[in-house]
């Protein structure tokens, strides 16, 4: 591919415009003008990984009831995705200005995303290895290693989960309102409880 620099000093690679991918952007321009690759989300480059969510308890009753719908089950699977903090390995981040290597970063691990939403994972394809006779070893398959996760593919699922939760909250409030009105009509609510419940369903 030809790399060009126009009269304004801007570097251009015209042929790249016709090469498309469903993956997310992977290049950042820092304040000095340097082109930097975004850091990987793989655990290979991280240490001091600390999880904050209990994966076993992350699936709500809503997602269990929706499991009969395969599409719902697939989308709601992100509830199983654990959130963690981590530090990057020494020397891995070298293009950030003002980067603090001792400050924890919050996010996801690519290998964890692969377990719950593999379509949102971007992979590093390990280059082929050759023996002493220059013959490719294991040419029948390439080694694909989780490298990062794609916000464009994961975020819509998160929005869908929020929408499902909002719908369920509305149904709960509607049912609670009916129950509240029936109990109130029967004169069984004490003033303090009545005020508290009325605020809940407002």
Explain what this protein looks like in three dimensions.
With 202 residues, the chain is α+β, with helices and mostly antiparallel strands. The protein has helices at 61-65, 70-75, 110-116, 151-185, 191-200, and strands at residues 4-5, 11-12, 27-29, 35-37, 46-51, 84-88, 105-107, 121-125, 129-130, 136-137, 144-149. 31% of the residues lie in helices and 19% in strands. The protein has a 3-stranded antiparallel beta sheet with strand order 5-6-7, with no helix packed on it. It has a two-stranded antiparallel ribbon with strand order 1-2. A two-stranded antiparallel sheet has the order 3-4. Helix 4 packs antiparallel against helix 5 (191-200). It is elongated, with a radius of gyration of 25 Å.
Give a nutshell description of this structure.
This protein has 202 residues and is α+β, with helices and mostly antiparallel strands. Helices cover 31% and strands 19% of the residues.
């Amino acid at each position: 591919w030809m790399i060009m620099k126009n009269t304004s000093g801007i570097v251009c690679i015209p042929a790249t415009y016709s090469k498309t991918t469903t993956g997310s952007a992977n290049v950042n321009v820092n304040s000095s003008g340097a082109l930097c690759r975004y850091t990987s989300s793989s655990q290979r480059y991280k240490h001091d990984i600390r999880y904050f969510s209990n994966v076993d308890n992350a699936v709500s009753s809503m997602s269990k009831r929706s499991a009969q719908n395969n599409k719902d089950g697939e989308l709601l699977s992100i509830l199983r995705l654990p959130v963690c903090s981590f530090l990057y390995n020494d020397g891995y981040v070298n293009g950030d200005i003002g980067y603090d290597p001792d400050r924890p970063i919050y996010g996801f691990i690519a290998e964890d995303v692969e377990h719950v939403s593999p379509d949102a994972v971007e992979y590093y394809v390990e280059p082929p290895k050759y023996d002493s006779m220059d013959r490719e070893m294991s040419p029948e398959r390439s080694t694909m290693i989780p490298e990062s996760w794609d916000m464009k593919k994961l975020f819509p699922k998160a929005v869908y989960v929020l929408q499902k939760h909002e719908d369920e909250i509305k149904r709960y409030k509607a049912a609670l309102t009916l129950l509240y009105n029936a109990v109130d009509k029967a004169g069984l609510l004490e003033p303090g409880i009545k005020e508290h419940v009325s605020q809940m369903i407002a």
